[in-house]
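seq as requested:
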Amino acid sequence: MVEDLQVIVESTTAYREALEKVFNIAPDNAMTQDIRRLIEDSRVAVDAGIQRTKVAQDTIERVVRAISQRSTEVRQVATALTNESATADRLANSLHEMETATQQNAAMI
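C-alpha cells:
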C-alpha cells in the first residue's frame, strides 16, 4: 500500500512538472492565459493531492509500526504464558510427588 502511494506521488509530480513546462513555453495571448490559469489550477490541485498522499503514507506507516509493536507484545505475552504454564505443570507434579510420599509415609506408621 505504501509503495502504491509512492507511485502516485511520483506520477503526480511528473504530471505537475509537465504542466509547468507547457506553462513556460506557451505564447502569450488570451487563449494561452486561460490555459495557463487552468494549468495553474491543476498544479495547485496536484500539489494538494501530493501533500494529502504524503500525509496518508505517513499515517499508514505509523499504523504498520504500531501493529508490528503490538504483534511483538502479543508474542512476548504468549511466550510468558507458555513459561508460566510449564512452571505450573512442574509445581503440580512436585505437589503430586509430595502427596504420594506423604501418603506412603503415613501408610508406614
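The radius of gyration is 34 Å.
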